[in-house]
Every structure is written in structure tokens, then in C-alpha cells.
Amino acid sequence: MSRFSTPDEIFGPISISRLKNDDKYERLTTGYLPEADVVFLDEIWKAGPSIQNTLLTVINEHIFHNGGQIMSIPMKVLIAASNELPAKDEGLEALWDRFLVRMVSNCIESDTIFFKMIKGTKVEMPELPDYIYITNELYCQWQQDSKNIDIQDSVVSAIKALRKSLDALEKEDGNQLRYYVSDRFVYQDKTDTALMAQYHNGVLDIIYHDTTDFETRKIQKWLRELMRDIILRIAKVVLPARVKYWENLKGLHGTGVTIKRLRKNVLGYCTFNNHIALQPFLVIFKKEWMDGVILHEMAHYKYKHHRKSFWDFLSTLIGEDSKMAKVKDDIAMSPYYNYYLYLTKNK
To answer: What local confidence, expressed as pLDDT, does residue 40 receive?
Structure first.
């Protein structure tokens, strides 16, 4: 593919007769991706947005929107190749993330292997025995068996340790998102209803079956854990930067910032050595209210109490009467309070 490739080349040409006689915009899909079992796409990152956006639905949901009808596609595997990685900041992360198995094939560096390739004779492909082939029956059996796989506690512990290590590396790296881990979660309940969620570029996509009951306790718990994880990742980038902004502006400097879940009624605190801890859920509120909490904790750099001298100093930081500002902030918080209670709920 190239940047000049059109959807017609991949998904089939428009049916002129259907458009002319029935006023239907439909593609002739025979011999094209929507009816293929095995798909190979070369130079996938050079394709235009119209092709790549359609591929997201094809890979995720195994359906293709053809005019007014939805086709269930038989695709069993999609293989892609490219001489380059997807460009940054062009919205290609979601498509890149769909490819679960990735292999880098570098140039031949060894002279011995290089000249062996040049001087080598044609290699005849041997005939494969029948038991090696993946039949439709075997493929369907694999699908059924995959639903019964139980993830043991030792595997869960290993994944948690890996995520924690990557988070630590990301923090040491200054939260530049170079140690990126896709925010992908899968939930499967007793009725085999699968949910998948993915967060990219400020957008959360949730894929679910029509029969999914979002009122069940298990799914509500899954949603809360999903939102908490996303909010924590955002907060670890936003809140330390906001503290640094106010420290530089006000000429006050502490010893560091920690973002972690605190008790429900605690939005932040400052230690005796001027280290601030902030509740990640602060990022769901408007910026002025979030800044108010940050400045409150920064005022504790100088005063470790809530007596009059503290409130007077905080008033100078925020530029108005601090106690009156607190009343206004409490009122501003009210529209978000139910959401805050939902996120902090444990059951």
C-alpha cells in the first residue's frame, strides 16, 4: 500500500449497478479482505486514514460495514509488513496496538550468511503433511478452548511486578511516555460476554456485546478499576507538572511530589520535610479547584498547621480570602462529587 491507495483496493470496488439501480452504496467484496480467511497487508503504515480506520473495526470486532449491512468477516489472521514503524503523533497507536505479535527483521550483517544467500541454489518447499495444516474445525476448537484458560495467581503476580517496574522506569524518565504499556483490559463473565477497553490520546474505547449488563457488580467493579488506572496514569503526568508550575511562580520549593490513592476524605497532604502527596482523582475536577488543593499543600511548606497565620499566607498565594475561596471551591466540587464517590467506592 501507499498513501495513494484507496479503500477499493482493499475492501472491494463500489457496485455501480447497485448504486445506479437501487441507490445503494455497496462494495463488491468477493476476492477482497471482507471475505478472506488469511490477509496480508504490505506497507500498512503508508495507508491513508480511510483504510486504517476501517481496519480497526475489522480487527477488533470482525465485522465490515458495507453500505447498509454489517458483514461478519471470516478472517482468521492478519499479517502486515512495513519498512518503517508508525509515525508518532499521527493517531496510529491504536492500530499498532492491535498487532499482538511483532517481529523485527534486520538486514543481514554477517558476510558469510550474505554470500551464502547470493550463491545459494533455489530451495524447494517440501510437501507438508496433513496434520500440520490448521483446519476450520481445529481453529474453532482453539477459540472455544481459549475461553476456558484460567490465569493463575503466579502469572498475575508476575504481571503486577512487571507493570510496577515499568512505572518506576517511567517515573525516573520524567514521565516522557517512553516506557509505554497499552491500557488494555479484558473482562469475561459467566455468560461469555467479553469487554475490552483501550485508552489512547485522551479517548477511552470500550468494546462490548449487546447482551452486556453494565449494572452487574462485577462489571461495575471492572469499570471502576479501569477508570482508576487511567486517572492514575494521567495524574502522574499532570499533577507533578502543575506543582512545579506553582512552585516556580510562587518561589516556593518542596522536596518532591507523590501521586497515590489516599483515604476517601483526603485530597492531599504535606509532610514535615515538605513532600507533597496528592490524590490522583484531583484531575477529574476543574483546574482552578485542583490548583487550590495544590496551593493549600504548598502553604504547608511554611506553616504546618491550620491556624490564622496559615490561612493568611494561603490568601496571599491564591490572591483572595482563602476561607471564602474554600467555600466557593466546595460548591464547585458538588457536580463532581457523585463521580468522586463512585471512583473511591471499594465494592
So the answer is: 95
Alpha-carbon separation of residue 100 from 24, 46, 79, 204, 254 (angstroms)? 36, 20, 11, 19, 43
Neighbours of 78 (CB within 10 A): 17
197: buried, middle or exposed (CB in 10 Å: 19+, 13-18, 0-12)?
A: buried
Tell me what percent of the residues of the chain surpass a pLDDT of 70.
83
Phi, then psi, of 138 in degrees rounded to 5: -65, -40
Q: State the Cα–Cα distance between residues 15 and 29, nearest whole angstrom.
A: 9
Burial of residue 5, with CB atoms counted within 10 A of its CB: 0-12 exposed, 13-18 middle, 19 or more buried: middle
Range with the poorest average pLDDT among 26-30, 170-174, 278-282: 170-174
Distance between CA atoms of residues 5 and 26, nearest Å: 19
pLDDT, one tens digit per residue, over 111-123 is 888 888 888 777 7
Positive or negative torsion for Cα 301, 307, 308, 309: negative
Measured between alpha carbons, how far is 191 from 174 in angstroms, rounded to an integer?
A: 43
**Closest listed residue to residue 331, CA positions, set 300, 286, 282, 284:** 286
Is 197:207 a contact under the CB 8 Å cutoff? yes
Q: In which element (H, E) is residue 242 found? A: helix 217-250
Cell numbers given for 317: 498565594
Distances (CA, A) of 154 to 151, 158, 164, 168: 8, 6, 15, 21
Half-sphere exposure of 198 (CA within 13 A, CB side): 14
Q: Return d(Cα 332, Cα 285) in angstroms, integer.
A: 9
